[in-house]
């Protein structure tokens, strides 16, 4: 059907840039042409590309690619915020990860980004009452990427997980917007309690590699947790904590630690 004379075409600068970078990547490395065409260039929207990558990565003998593709297409159609969050995550990764120099890389190559997007579909299933299927998604993400995020956890936008190996996020954890974390971070509980038992991470927090944040505690916005720290108590906003157990060792040092990615104490 032809567009009305004054119809406005939707604009998606992030997706447009990804497609342009995909064309350049195929030109630079023709051996990747098949993968990049099927993953990016064969799709007319970011939502369709995300659904395709979700189904390609998570499919197995237990769950077909077609079923997972239909599931993800449904999720992105019903909840457009999933795609908005993905856009924010792509930009966050590009801006904060020095190893990322194209918007194309997270969606095609980075397991941290792919794990978070799969979690987002799993969380949509969880909140829609389809909890067993959400657990299946959690299982596959853990098997594939070494990232174990419970589908009941609540995670904001603009999330960057660098390297992403051995990330654990518990069921009642809450992660704000514009949070950065490195590999081997745990947002866990401290015992066998089954109520609200996991950390609440404020906006703009930077969590260093190997840090463990345990229990129903609050990490104030724009704080920094040093690598290898074990945090067992609340952290005020805009502070740096370090050690085992972690203690306040100074101010955060900048307005947006998660964006600056400065891990000096």
Describe the protein's topology.
Blueprint lengths: L12 H16 L4 H9 L4 H13 L6 H14 L2 H16 L7 H6 L1 H17 L3 H15 L1 E3 L4 E2 L4 E2 L5 E3 L4 E2 L4 E2 L4 E3 L11 E2 L4 E2 L4 E3 L3 E2 L4 E2 L4 E2 L7 E4 L4 E5 L5 H4 L5
Helix pairs in contact: 1-2, 3-4, 5-7, 7-8
Protein name: Serine acetyltransferase
Family: Belongs to the transferase hexapeptide repeat family.
GO cellular component, one term: cytoplasm
Structural write-up:
- There is one protein chain.
- With 265 residues, this protein is of the alpha/beta class.
- Helix content is 42%, strand content 15%.
- The protein has 9 helices and 15 strands.
- A hairpin with a 4-residue loop joins strand 14 and strand 15 (247-251).
- The longest helix is centred in the middle third of the chain and has 17 residues, at 111-127.
- The chain starts with 12 loop residues before the first helix and ends in a 5-residue tail after the last helix.
- The mean pLDDT is 93.
Shape: globular
What is the beta-strand fraction? Answer: 5-15%
The third-level CATH topology of the largest domain is serine acetyltransferase, domain 1
* SS-based class: alpha/beta
Instruction: Give the N-to-C terminal Cα separation.
Output: 60 Å
Q: What is the CATH C-level name of the largest domain?
A: Mainly Alpha
Mean pLDDT: 93
Tell me the number of strands: 15
Order of helices and strands: HHHHHHHHEEEEEEEEEEEEEEEH
Please give the order of strands in the largest beta sheet: 3-6-9-12-14-15
Helical element count? 9
